[in-house]
Amino acid sequence: MSKTLELVCVITEADLRRFFATRTRVQRWLAATIGVFVPVCTAYLFIHFPRHRTLDETLLLIGPALILGLLAVHFSSVQAWVSARDTIEKNPGLRESRYLLSDEGVRTSNSESHSQISWSAINKATEDDGMFLIYLRNGAAFILPKSNFTNDQIQDLRKLLRETLLERARLLS
């Protein structure tokens, strides 16, 4: 890669909510699955093996399981909102960051810190309709909202990530 790409990102609380929501999506699916699966299995057992079970006993099993599943889904959604707010409050330097992508890796800087990350320390890069996420091997991620970039910068970033990360770049078009 011979091109160096410099990007300035302003990250909002809404960007962080979106990021945290994608991370908790699996938790919501698991909670919803358990919240539906347990009551359905209980109802199946009641219908097909009714001995020694009354309707009241079955409802006592189905009701709490369904309520717990729905609560788990709700709280994982609330968790994304709270995490985003707390992250912005505790790390004001995240609001505006500079990224310099080159042959050597990704150099980041904001009002609180500066770092240099080599391409080998990057696990993968993904893209959705609203942002690029560059994941490090330690589980952290750089959040690059597309709203900060021109169409040319988005195309340049895609090209650069594909060239440097190869199969580790899971990008749109």
Structural features:
173 residues, alpha+beta, PH-domain like, 4-stranded antiparallel β-sheet, 4-stranded mixed β-sheet, 4 helices, 50% helix
How does this structure look, described?
This protein has 173 residues and is α+β, with helices and mostly antiparallel strands. The protein has two domains: 5-12 and 92-170, Pleckstrin-homology domain (PH domain)/Phosphotyrosine-binding domain (PTB) (PH-domain like); 16-90. It contains four helices and eight strands, in the order βαααββββββαβ. It has helices at residues 13-23, 25-48, 55-90, 151-165; strands spanning 5-10, 96-102, 105-110, 114-117, 122-127, 131-136, 141-145, 169-170. It has a four-stranded antiparallel sheet with strand order 1-2-3-4, covered by helices on one side. The protein has a four-stranded mixed sheet with strand order 7-6-5-8. α1 crosses α3 (55-90) and α2 (25-48) packs antiparallel against α3. The chain is elongated and about 75 Å long.
Give a brief outline of the structure:
With 173 residues, the chain is α+β, with helices and mostly antiparallel strands.
Uncertain segments of ≥5 residues (pLDDT<50)?
Answer: none
CATH architecture of the largest domain: Roll
Average pLDDT number: 83
From the alpha-carbon coordinates, what is the Rg to the nearest angstrom? 22 Å
| Count of alpha/pi helices | 4
User: Level of helix content?
Assistant: 40-55%
Order of helices and strands: EHHHEEEEEEHE
| Count of all domains | 2
CATH level-3 fold name of the largest domain: PH-domain like
